[in-house]
Amino acid sequence: MNTKSFIAAGLVGGIVDWLLGWLFYGIIFADKFPQPDAESNAMIYITLGCLAFGFFISYIYNKWANISTFGTGLKAGAIIGLFMGLISNFFRLAEQASENFEMFGIDLAISIVMAALVGGVVGFVNGKVGSKS
Predict the structure, then answer these.
(1) pTM for the full model?
(2) For a disulfide at 5, which of 22, 42, 111, 130, Cβ 3.0-4.6 Å?
(3) Domain ranges of the chain
């Protein structure tokens, strides 16, 4: 595994994930999803979660899949987002009586789009950084 590519792609992927989360959950669908309390540590945990996701995708692409293009990363990311979205939304359905299928569908679509774009960026960065070593 190319460590430099893993770190660079993981960081960039985490930043892209954070920005997309802000766009989708904080702006476009802010009325549908609860917003973090400004006085809590929620943003720290959200940021750490986004970075963890970026490094998760980067690890898969670097260690196992050898994904180094935007297009291939986009496709693989969409599949990862599909399954991660299904998993998290099924658990949310089990935990919250107020959860409904409209929210399930919206969050699933957001998960797919976000993971696809993060995956595309991670694949792109892997190709750029990995080709120089």
Answers:
(1) 0.93
(2) 130
(3) 3-26+34-130
